[in-house]
Amino acid sequence: MIVTINKVAVALWFMCLLGVSSVHANEENTDATQFLSAHLLSKGFTDLVIGAVGKKNGEALQKTRYFAVECTYKINRCRVMGEDSEGKRLSSWFRVYSQQLGWQAKKSIRKHARIQQSDFEWVMTDGFLCANKLAGRDEIDTGVIAAQRIKKGSTLCDLHILKSDGIAAGDTVSLTSTTEMLQLMIEVKALDSGNVGDTIRVRIPSSGNILQGKVVSSELVESEIK
User: Fold this and answer.
1) Per-residue pLDDT at 170
2) Per residue, what are the HEC states of the chain?
3) For 32, phi and psi rounded to 5 degrees?
4) Cα–Cα distance between 164 and 144 in angstroms, integer?
5) Number of Cβ within a 10 Å radius of residue 121
6) What is the pTM of this model?
């Protein structure tokens, strides 16, 4: 059986979201599909299509108390867990699809670090945490940095990203120094974030020495050799 939940249904469900999951968690004779629908709607998903995976025993389902949901959004699978009247644990698997897609972090990202598309995957995400203001598919580019720490597995929201024309901590940039005799340019790693005109710390990878320099562009820091 495949169940489709459109935006009209979402509006009706949303009026009682806070009560649905808690009631279902303690109520017998609850349908697993309805339990899953309530859980996903409470997470902010819309336009859901839910289909059962495998065959289920109808009589057993009528005696099941459902209490938890686990979803792997990357493969569009959710498991509804419950127990029968004798306390035996049961699981029901579902395929779940939603038009609500977004970026999910594959690793933790530090505050002010450069956001790389390779650090995220485009999957079905938990939009409720973003108040439905997910970062769009085209919003990750070389000019975006993290406005706050982003945990591994979390959803990328609009509030997590900032546009920056400067340098982000962790960037590899060029450091230039000019004296009366010569001009030196080497690759260094930025230890701080900064916009054009800011002074930041950089580390020379080969020696580990830390210097300070003024941000000239998104790829260049200028320092004085004393």
Assistant:
1) 85
2) CEEEECHHHHHHHHCCHHHHHHHHHCCCCCCHHHHHHHHHHHCCCCCEEEEEECCCCHHHHHCCEEEEEEEEHHHCEEEEEEECCCCCEEEEEEEEECCCEEEEECCCECCCEECCHHHEEEEECCHHHHCCCECCCCCCCCCEEECCCECCCCECEHHHEEECCCECECCEEEEEEECCCCEEEEEEEECCCECCCCEEEEECCCCCCEEEEEECCCCEEEECCC
3) -65, -35
4) 6
5) 14
6) 0.52
The token pair that represents 63 in the structure block: 């005696």
What tokens appear for 74 in the block? 């990357």
Token pair listed for 108? 């933790």
Q: Which pLDDT band, with edges at 50, 70 and 90, does 78 fall under?
A: very high
Binned at pLDDT 50, 70 and 90, residue 151 comes out as very high
Q: Residue 96: pLDDT above 70?
A: yes
Within a 13 Å sphere around the CA of 191, how many CA atoms are in the beta-carbon half? 13
Structure tokens that stand for 214 in this block: 């003024």
Q: Tell me how far apart the alpha carbons of residues 173 and 117 are, in angstroms, rounded to a whole number.
A: 19
Model confidence at 35, pLDDT cuts 50, 70, 90, reads very high
- Residues 222 and 213: beta-carbon distance below 8 Å: yes
Q: How far apart are CA 181 and CA 88, in angstroms?
A: 82
